[in-house]
Design a protein that fits this description.
Layout lengths: L4 H23 L4 H8 L4 H13 L3 H10 L2
Helix pairs in contact: 1-3, 2-4
């Protein structure tokens, strides 16, 4: 099934918010150098992996490294 770009963007935005909530809850901050590259990601599989990483990573540097590897 082909998904419309609008639906894809909406789903990605929802995933972004969930990931950022996890990071903020765990690390008490969501710096711009994390939020900006995260919001550029629209691929659902990638966002699912990042969601799991946000829940398990020991610190924000590990999450940043994962984001930088996606570029």
């Amino acid at each position: 099934m082909i998904e419309s770009p609008v639906v894809q963007r909406w789903k990605a935005e929802t995933a972004h918010e969930l990931i950022l909530e996890i990071l903020k809850d765990r690390f008490h901050t969501t710096p711009r150098d994390v939020t900006k590259p995260l919001r550029a990601i629209l691929d659902e599989k990638t966002l699912r992996r990042l969601n799991l990483l946000a829940a398990k990573c020991p610190d924000l540097d590990v999450f940043r490294d994962a984001l930088s590897m996606l570029k």
